Amino acid sequence: TNDIFILAIESSCDETSASVIADGKVLNNIVATQSVHEKYGGVVPELASRAHQENLIPVVQEAILTSGISKSQLSAIAFTRGPGLMGSLLVGVSFAKAFAYSLNIPLIEVNHMNAHILAHFIEDPKPNFPFICLTVSGGHTQLVLVKDPLTMEVIGETQDDAVGEAFDKTAKLLGLPYPGGPLIDKYAKLGNPKAFQFPITRMPELNYSFSGIKTAVLYFLRDQLKENPKFIEENLADLCASVQYSLVEMLLIKLKLAVKEYGVKEVAIAGGVSANSGLRDTLTKLAKERGWNLYIPKFEYCTDNAAMIAMAAHFKYLKGEFSSMDVTPLAKMKI
Ligand code: KG4
Ligand code: ZN
């Protein structure tokens, strides 16, 4: 038969995930989230590698078991080559190589950022080419012109922190645990986005800068706390809403500019921060006003997951793009 069955592995940061895809249809998406990092206020690379080591085989076993497909039917093994944490990537790459070698099937490397975008092809409705994707995660903030599944061009990106990092770092200043992005989102729903004014940094062209906001919040809080030691707890919702407002504004200013410059009205968002309800709501309204076709992936496919790696691998399989056995992970990897 012509069936293409691919097992994909994602281990670039702090989620260990495996997924099986059959002829482009994702059968499952098993994710083991690492909780060890919470008390440190950020991902500790060495602990992440160890947790991947522990979780990977059970996660792969569950993916194979629940797919109803046997190991011997697999056509290829896919894995995240980068970008990500070197130690975390190594666990996935080494496992994928060994597994592909033992089954005598091809190996497919996937770029994690590419895969975040291709998560849009897991379910309907799928964007039409070309489309513009705003990819927003804990490590990246990019505007990407997607010409076909394997041809993408970064047309703008952050020059310093990623927007997810800005969410997490300001959350930390507000005393919230890691990762703080989802908590800012939660409290923001109860607050007034105009209560406080945080800076909206405007970079040249389609580029971003998110490092200013955490410094602004730091100094603002320092001054307020001098007057009122309970300032944060008394204003948490308003603080979260105001921070979120600035971050979302910054994202959308450049997205609007990109749509105008490229004349492309197919617009998508991807990556962990696309789970943010402030971004989703504001963008949904904006798209309606401006007649854009907007694509937002299901929450499960926004944050790190192997289903998106499997989807990307399927496209590569169709083009015969395989990796050699001496492939190594890349902490930094361009789209
Ligand atoms: O794509 P992702 O799961 O991992 C990376 O590749 O970085 O993104 C994780 C980032 C974290 O910074 C997290 O705080 C942020 O996405 N995030 C959110 C929300 N959900 C996840 N930020 C704001 N609002 C949310 N609802
Ligand atoms: Zn990611």
Question: If you had to describe this structure to a student in words, what would you say it looks like?
Answer:
This protein has two domains: 5-118 and 302-318, ATPase, nucleotide binding domain (Nucleotidyltransferase, domain 5, 2-Layer Sandwich), CATH 3.30.420.40; 128-296, Nucleotidyltransferase, domain 5 (2-Layer Sandwich). 43% of the residues lie in helices and 18% in strands. The protein contains nine helices and eleven strands. The strands form two sheets. Strands 1, 2, 3, 4, 5 and 6 form a six-stranded mixed β-sheet that branches. It is globular and about 65 Å long. The mean pLDDT is 96. Bound molecules: 5'-O-[(R)-(carboxyoxy)(hydroxy)phosphoryl]adenosine and zinc ion. The site of zinc ion has 6 residues, from helix 3. 5'-O-[(R)-(carboxyoxy)(hydroxy)phosphoryl]adenosine binds at residues 13, 137-139, 164, 167-168, 179, 181-182, 184-185, 271-273, 275-276, 303-304.
Strand content: 15-25%
Per CATH, the superfamily of the largest domain is ATPase, nucleotide binding domain
User: Unreliable segments (pLDDT under 50, ≥5 consecutive)?
Assistant: none
CATH class of the largest domain: Alpha Beta
CATH fold name of the largest domain? Nucleotidyltransferase, domain 5
Work out the helicity level: 40-55%
As a whole number of angstroms, the C-alpha radius of gyration is 20 Å
Count of folded domains: 2
Task: Please state the structural category.
Answer: alpha/beta
SSE order, as H and E? EEEEHEHEHEEEHHHHEHEH
**Terminal Cα separation, in Å?**
33 Å
Q: What global shape is seen? A: globular
Enumerate how many helices there are, as a single number: 9
The biggest sheet amounts to: 6 strands, mixed
Total strands: the figure is 11
The set of bound ligands, ions and cofactors reads: 5'-O-[(R)-(carboxyoxy)(hydroxy)phosphoryl]adenosine, zinc ion
The CATH level-2 architecture of the largest domain is identified as: 2-Layer Sandwich
Mean pLDDT: 96
Family: Belongs to the KAE1 / TsaD family.
Keywords: Acyltransferase, Cytoplasm, Iron, Metal-binding, Transferase, tRNA processing
Enzyme class: transferase
EC number: 2.3.1.234
